[in-house]
Amino acid sequence: MVNFRRVFVAGHNGMVGSAIVRQLQNQGYQDIITRSSQELDLRDSAKVAAFFSDLQIDEVYLAAAKVGGIQANETYPAEFIYDNLMIESNVIHQACIHGVKKLLFLGSSCIYPKLAEQPMRENELLNGYLEPTNEPYAIAKIAGIKLCESYNRQYGVDFRSVMPTNLYGPGDNYHPENSHVVPALIRRIHEAKQAGLAEVVIWGTGSAKREFLHVDDMAKACIFVMNLDKDIYQLNTQPMLSHINIGTGLDCTILELAEIIAKIIDFKGKIKVDPTKPDGTPRKLMNVGRLRDLGWKAQIDLESGLTDTYQWFREHQQKLRGM
To answer: Which residues bind substrate (predicted)?
Structure first.
């Protein structure tokens, strides 16, 4: 079915944004607006204001963000809080001023306390201390949720928030220092196999548990939530608790994840752990009951999704080698 709503996907070059663009195209959207960070610096309030003034945007998917793993968060905490606060503040404010009908803000499961009750329900937000290694990023994402809530309350707009679990899939970042756990393990284990190494050492004890969602499932969930009738969406949220978790409801240890990836890559060496390195949050499993009650659940199982992701990595290996 053809859809002529004008949709701005902020962050379309990233893994999540590009997946949202693919799914919008698959669902018949004809007027998708994108801008690279070189074309439009979302941290620049004047440029963002001019952009929204020039274009009559109907909907916004706010997927633009500065992201990275534990090492990147520990190395660049100022950039992680500043860049993300500026991006979301500018886009949400200008979307309100210029009459955007709907906005979907993409957060992160790291908004929840380090020792949140598992699986994490939406009402765990602000119920305890955050994981120190990514606290600046988490605070920025919490601010994005509260921006949407505040603009909804004061101006009656329809700005929604979704909190994805750990994402992976085509278009991920494979930088050796700044990548998340799935691409980091894929690259390291692949290169270890090529080099004929006898082992790969992973950070931490390997016992930390994580939930992983394929980015194509995430994109479908975002469009599903965006297209929910406003009354139905509001029935499944609370005035001061407007975000919805997106995940699979299943998790595994980091060691188990590494072993699955090693199997897919056919790496015959050993996977060893380094307990002198941080584990991060002991467990991060989303309670996805609210989203399931609304009628959506993930379709791509972890091994199939990782196999697909490794194939993408192999196809783009030459381009990624310079990272």
So the answer is: 188, 203, 210, 279
**234-243 pLDDT, tens per residue?**
766 665 568 9
Q: Which of 112, 137, 151, 168 is catalytic?
A: 137
141 is in an annotated binding site: yes
| Out of 3-7, 13-17, 29-33, 101-105, least confident range | 3-7
Give catalytic status of residue 112 as yes or no: no
Question: Structural domains in the chain?
Answer: 3-320 (3.40.50.720)
Average pLDDT of the chain is: 92
Q: Is 164 annotated as a binding residue?
A: yes
- 3-class SS letters over 5-34: EEEEEECCCCHHHHHHHHHHHHCCEEEEEC
Is-contact 130 138, C-beta < 8 A?
Answer: yes
166 is in an annotated binding site: yes
Q: Specify the pTM.
A: 0.92
Q: Is 14 annotated as a binding residue?
A: yes
C-alpha distance from residue 252 to each of 179, 257, 258, 308 (Å): 19, 7, 10, 19
Complete edge-to-edge strand list for the sheet that includes strand 209-210:
252-253, 209-210, 283-284
- What is the per-residue pLDDT for 105? 98
